[in-house]
Amino acid sequence: MTDLLPAPGLTGLLLGATPPGVYRLPPADTTPRVVSLAAEADWRGATLRLGGVTTKTAFLDRCATDLEFPEWFGRNWDALADCLTDLSWWREEGKARGYLVLAEEWTAFRKAAPKDARTAEAIFGDAVDYWAGEESPLAVLLG
What we know:
The structure is a single chain. The chain is an alpha/beta fold. It has one domain: Barnase, Chain D (2-Layer Sandwich). The chain has 6 helices and 4 strands; from the N terminus they run H-E-H-E-H-H-E-H-H-E. Strands 1-4-3-2 form a 4-stranded parallel beta sheet. Helix 4 packs parallel to helix 6 and helix 5 packs across helix 6. It is globular, with a radius of gyration of 14 Å. The two termini are 13 Å apart.
């Protein structure tokens, strides 16, 4: 099980006081608040909407759509790892202080597809570790 985002919470993550990681989003933090704070801190954020997602196929399809993955995304676990360790598809003009993926309704997905959720969480963790030493890290919040 992933740890809850530690104090000082989202602000600490965005300002560098809390190391990037895969964290459970505190219940008091809402998607609009997370997106707004990330933008204010010059982080690029994306929301992965997992409502109604109960299978690996649906999860990967939702990643492709919500995260706006490139055409070459192969809709398998290896391709998910590739997209998360090659963020060229996400970069825009200018430099971001970091990249943030917010996975909404993670608990429901984990209950519906526990094995797939564990695999996805491991891939998220590997991607976060990959970017940890870089100027623009990746963090994942499981809501």
